């Protein structure tokens, strides 16, 4: 009875378009976005160019907000019905990137679009989630073939195209999304599922144990094998500088602009993949705790959406998006603190990057859409 | 509905599994938090230290090396900024692209650049790709700096000798301090890469020229760009030197030798001032001061002409008949002969079973001392030498500064040989043979001298027996105090000769030019006195001079002073394998002396504060102006 009363209230609020949940959700998103812009500003404010990175990032956030609103206010069932054609288009774009794409750091990941560049592999993650959610909810999928092998074949072409770029980070995200969705739709053996999920989540820590026992030259060989372009100097220069930056932040941090590691550019990629290190150096352990709480709160609210999802499509979509975000957050922070080898995975909502920002915000819009649709059926 | 129901049950199952995600998330975040606590709290101070060291570097500020001028304030050595291109490998992302860009910007061979970048060595140390960039190249690189990560253009101070090959043996050259030098106490305040004098004045006066290095703390970014600089200690520039040479005379002396090997030394006998000191073949001090490849070094060191040898102070030759000047003085002082003593020369001197020839086949007939000097009669001096004995000869030779350092302020001066019984026992472990005295009395055999010693000897005669130590530096500008310190010339020794002996010798030497073996040195401008010498290279000689291969021809000596009445210049000319002193060397001395007379140098030091200010270049102006107050 109390539940019914709550739903009545929800319905009333929903009729006005917003509720308290939405406010908290959107508030968290923009808080993290703000922290990101601040850190990007801190590293790149003295660039001396007309259109510095922090200003560009504000533009991306603006475009991301549009994507957020579009995904929020459409019907996610209709969006999901576009999944297969969208996946086909993404595969074509990924193929185009290989031949026509723009290189940076030796990898071809971008399609030039005027002054900007478009990174299909970022959008491929969201399209993959849509595709898999659509596949599982379309009809009951029973048996190993339908549950595991067929969706696996669906994932494979995209994964291979991404790894060919090479973009190890996006490739890993792809696999993580597939594994997470597979687990959430359930497999025969629950134990196996639990083990798989935990091993996925504990992978960074296991990796550290394994990685730490290797000699430098062995690590270098492995890294040059899996991702030859990311750390050409070898010797873990990036990883070391990142650890120095974070550690030097200590409890209180060095304050805005105070991060010598990033200001003096010892820390590479301070505005993109290592934005967390910049933040940690300038705001210290306290700042980092606040940031982690913001991320955990956002994920927690998102999990609420899954818990209250009306149908399987919504729940699967939400789970996919959450797993993707979690994966990126954990791997990115894990690599900056030296628990994971350095792969090019941006920190969601914080790292500079147009494609990633727009894709992440679109995904979050879709999440909120799922929560809204839950009510619109009554 | 059935399918929907199936879906619903699956949905419920999915939602129940959410707890796994929740637990997993909290676990992972807790681990990340722990890791961050470890990094930032437990190891925070350690990483803070690392980050401080990352950004500040203690950098040595090299002092400006002292400048070198000639006696009139003409600049001989200064410092010019030189741009050097370095590549820091750690900051290079795409090596092929960088090589391509650099080769197109600088017009360098890509394989050459690749070779420099891939050469063995530490990755942390920047690789030097090209030194001495032109200003245009440097600006080109700087304007493309954003496209060229890891590329640095460093301004380095480069020693520069405007004259290049002029006075190169005298000035010397500079180079990086060697590891062996660094271990010596006199280089204790230096460090790897410091520039020190390695030859000539640069080496001898290095302590004055070197200055004192300063230190600064530099905050740098990862690409090595300086962000902020705090100077901890200012460097002190080295002192400026004012040499005694006149660069105009020096150039004439060098051009007189031309392509021949040899040396010319010109002194002011009244002060010992070295007015010119040429040695040929020579080298370009600018080239030697750059970093040479081992191959270039080998080429210079193995050059048969030995261009690095300063023949003026390091070349040792038999003095030949020039020795007779000393012999004449000794003979008169010891009363072995009187000016009027006559000795008959029939063209040879029989000693034991051996006949010692005179250079003039038929002999000179009856000759006295004056005649013997003017016509360089060998038999006269064979007889005199035989009468005096080698020990007396040696003691007079020493009085004239032979067999010992003249004390010129140049590294590695050679002393030559004044033979004696004691010397021979020590050097060869043999007793002195009487016949060797006869060879020695005309400056052959074991006797060896340097052109500088010969110039000093004739200068001593010109200066009536008073020897001045040859000096190269007449004034030093202390850049710390701005004071110009004149260095006073001091007499070194006075040859013990009775009055009248030197005037007599001087008159005879004037006769050498007037009517004797050196008439080619006769000048319309000034009276010149001198003595020729021909130092035998090969013992057996047949046929005329032209038929003998160059390397077996005799060395041609000529020493001179002028004007005869009141000498202001003493000259020694040595032409290696140029034949007879009278024909080959005398004209060179004459030209040099005439040039000197035309220059009409003031007798006293040419350095005045006014001259310094007028001629000083940018490097020294600040201090120089103060000294002019």
Defining traits:
heterodimer; A: mainly alpha; three-stranded antiparallel sheet; 3% strand; globular; disordered C terminus; B: alpha+beta; Beta-lactamase; five-stranded antiparallel sheet; 21% strand; elongated; disordered N terminus
Mean pLDDT of chain A: 80
Query: What is the helix tally of chain A?
Result: 15
Instruction: Say how many strands of chain A there are.
Output: 3
What characterizes the major β-sheet of chain B? 7 strands, mixed
Beta-strand percent range of chain A: under 5%
Helicity level of chain B, as a percent range?
Answer: 25-40%
Summarize the biggest pleated sheet of chain A.
3 strands, antiparallel
Please tell me what the overall shape of chain A is. globular
- Give me the oligomer status: heterodimer
What's the total helix number of chain B? Answer: 24
Q: Examine the secondary-structure arrangement and name the CATH architecture of the domain at 247-295 and 311-599 in chain B.
A: 3-Layer(aba) Sandwich
Looking across the biggest beta sheet of chain A, what order are the strands in?
1-2-3
Structural class of chain B: alpha+beta
* Assigned CATH class of the domain at 247-295 and 311-599 in chain B: Alpha Beta
Spatial gap, N to C terminus of chain A: 16 Å
Series of H and E elements of chain A = HHHHHEEEHHHHHHHHHH
Q: What is the CATH topology of the domain at 247-295 and 311-599 in chain B?
A: Beta-lactamase
What does this structure look like?
The complex is a heterodimer of chains A (378) and B (629). By secondary structure, chain A is mostly helical. Helices cover 73% and strands 3% of the residues of chain A. Chain A has one domain. In chain A, helix 6 runs parallel beside helix 8 (168-185) and helix 11 (237-249) crosses helix 13. The two termini of chain A are 16 Å apart. Mean pLDDT of chain A is 80; it is low at 228-235 and 374-378. Among the domains of chain B are: 89-114 and 126-149, no CATH class; 247-295 and 311-599, 3-Layer(aba) Sandwich (Beta-lactamase). Chain B is elongated. The model of chain B is unreliable at 1-6 and 605-629 (pLDDT under 50). The interface between A and B is large, with 68 and 52 residues.
């Amino acid at each position: 009875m109390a539940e019914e009363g709550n739903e009545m209230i929800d319905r009333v609020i929903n009729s006005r378009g917003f509720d308290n949940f939405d406010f908290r959700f959107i508030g968290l998103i923009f808080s993290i976005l703000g922290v990101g812009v601040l850190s990007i500003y801190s590293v790149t404010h003295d660039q001396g160019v007309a259109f510095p990175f922090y200003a560009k990032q504000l533009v991306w956030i603006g475009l991301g907000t549009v994507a957020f609103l579009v995904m929020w206010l459409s019907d996610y069932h209709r969006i999901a019905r576009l999944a297969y054609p969208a996946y086909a288009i993404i595969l074509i774009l990924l193929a185009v990137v290989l031949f026509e794409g723009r290189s940076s750091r030796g990898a071809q990941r971008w399609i030039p679009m005027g002054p900007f560049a478009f990174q299909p592999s970022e959008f491929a993650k969201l399209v993959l989630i849509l595709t898999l959610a659509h596949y599982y909810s379309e009809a009951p999928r029973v048996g190993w073939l339908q549950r595991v092998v067929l969706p696996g074949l669906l994932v494979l072409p995209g994964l291979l195209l991404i790894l060919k770029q090479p973009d190890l980070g996006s490739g890993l995200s792809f696999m993580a999304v597939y594994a997470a969705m597979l687990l959430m739709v359930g497999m025969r053996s629950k134990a196996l599922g639990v083990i798989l999920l935990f091993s996925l989540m504990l992978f960074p820590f296991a990796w550290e144990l394994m990685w730490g026992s290797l000699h430098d030259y062995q690590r270098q060989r492995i890294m040059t094998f899996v991702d030859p372009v990311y750390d050409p100097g070898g010797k873990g220069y990036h990883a070391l500088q990142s650890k120095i930056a974070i550690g030097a932040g200590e409890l209180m941090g060095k304050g805005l602009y105070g991060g010598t590691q990033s200001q003096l550019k010892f820390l590479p990629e301070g505005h993109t993949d290592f934005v967390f290190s910049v933040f940690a150096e300038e705001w210290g352990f306290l700042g980092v705790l606040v940031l982690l709480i913001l991320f955990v709160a956002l994920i927690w609210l998102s999990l609420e959406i899954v818990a209250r999802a009306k149908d399987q499509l919504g729940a699967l979509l939400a789970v996919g998006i959450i797993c993707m975000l979690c994966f990126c957050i954990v791997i990115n922070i894990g690599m900056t603190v030296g628990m994971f080898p350095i792969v090019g995975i941006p920190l969601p909502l914080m790292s500079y990057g147009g494609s990633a920002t727009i894709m992440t915000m679109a995904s979050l819009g879709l999440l909120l859409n799922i929560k809204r649709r839950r009510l619109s059926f009554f | 509905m059935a399918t929907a129901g199936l879906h619903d049950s699956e949905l419920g199952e999915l939602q129940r599994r959410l707890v796994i995600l929740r637990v997993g998330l909290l676990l992972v975040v807790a681990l990340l938090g722990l890791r961050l606590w470890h990094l930032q709290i437990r190891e925070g101070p350690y990483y803070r230290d690392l980050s401080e060291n990352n950004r500040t570097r203690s950098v040595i500020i090299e002092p400006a090396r002292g400048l070198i001028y000639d006696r009139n304030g003409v600049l001989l050595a200064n410092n010019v900024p030189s741009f050097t291109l370095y590549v820091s490998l750690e900051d290079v992302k795409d090596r092929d692209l960088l090589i391509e860009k650099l080769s197109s910007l600088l017009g360098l061979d890509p394989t050459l650049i690749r070779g420099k970048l891939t050469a063995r060595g530490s990755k942390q140390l920047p690789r030097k790709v090209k030194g001495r960039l032109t200003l245009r190249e440097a600006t080109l690189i700087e304007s493309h700096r954003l496209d060229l990560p890891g590329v640095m253009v460093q301004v380095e101070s480069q020693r520069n000798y405007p004259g290049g090959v002029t006075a190169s043996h005298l000035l010397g050259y500079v180079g990086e301090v060697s590891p062996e030098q660094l271990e010596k106490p006199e280089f204790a305040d230096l460090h790897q890469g410091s520039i020190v004098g390695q030859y000539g004045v640069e080496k001898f006066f290095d302590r004055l020229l070197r200055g004192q290095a300063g230190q600064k703390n530099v905050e740098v970014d990862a690409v090595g760009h300086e962000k902020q600089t705090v100077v901890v200690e200012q460097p002190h520039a080295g002192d400026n030197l004012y040499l005694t040479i006149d660069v105009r005379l020096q150039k004439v002396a060098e051009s007189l030798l031309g392509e021949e090997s040899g040396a010319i030394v010109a002194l002011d006998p009244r002060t010992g001032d070295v007015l010119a000191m040429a040695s040929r073949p020579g080298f370009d001090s600018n080239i030697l001061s750059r970093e040479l490849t081992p191959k270039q070094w080998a080429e210079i060191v193995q050059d048969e002409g030995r261009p690095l040898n300063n023949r003026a102070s390091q070349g040792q030759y038999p003095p030949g008949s020039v020795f007779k000047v000393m012999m004449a003085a000794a003979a008169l002082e010891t009363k072995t002969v009187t000016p009027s003593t006559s000795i008959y020369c029939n063209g040879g001197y029989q000693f034991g079973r051996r006949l010692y020839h005179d250079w003039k086949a038929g002999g000179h007939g009856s000759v006295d001392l004056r005649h013997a000097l003017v016509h360089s009669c060998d038999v006269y001096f064979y007889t005199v030498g035989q009468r005096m004995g080698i020990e007396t000869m040696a003691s007079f030779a020493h009085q004239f500064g032979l067999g010992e350092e003249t004390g010129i302020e140049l590294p590695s001066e050679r002393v030559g040989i004044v033979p004696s019984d004691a010397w021979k026992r020590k050097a060869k472990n043999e007793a002195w043979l009487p016949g060797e005295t006869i060879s020695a009395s005309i400056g052959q055999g074991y006797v060896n001298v340097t052109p500088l010693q010969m110039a000093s000897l004739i200068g001593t005669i010109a200066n009536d027996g008073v020897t001045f130590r040859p000096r190269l530096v007449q004034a030093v500008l202390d850049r710390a105090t701005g004071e110009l310190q004149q260095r006073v010339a001091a007499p070194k020794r006075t040859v013990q000769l009775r009055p009248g002996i030197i005037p007599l010798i001087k008159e005879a030497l004037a006769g050498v030019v007037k009517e004797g073996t050196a008439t080619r040195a006769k000048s319309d401008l000034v009276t010149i006195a001198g003595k020729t010498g021909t130092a035998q290279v090969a013992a057996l000689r047949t046929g005329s001079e032209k038929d003998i291969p160059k390397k077996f021809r005799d060395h041609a000596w000529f020493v001179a002073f002028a004007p005869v009445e009141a000498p202001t210049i003493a000259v020694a000319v040595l032409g290696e394998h140029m034949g007879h002193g009278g024909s080959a060397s005398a004209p060179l001395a004459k030209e040099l002396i005439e040039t000197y007379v035309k220059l009409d140098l003031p007798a006293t030091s040419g350095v005045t504060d006014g001259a310094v200010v007028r001629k000083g270049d940018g490097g020294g102006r600040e201090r120089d102006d103060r000294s002019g107050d």
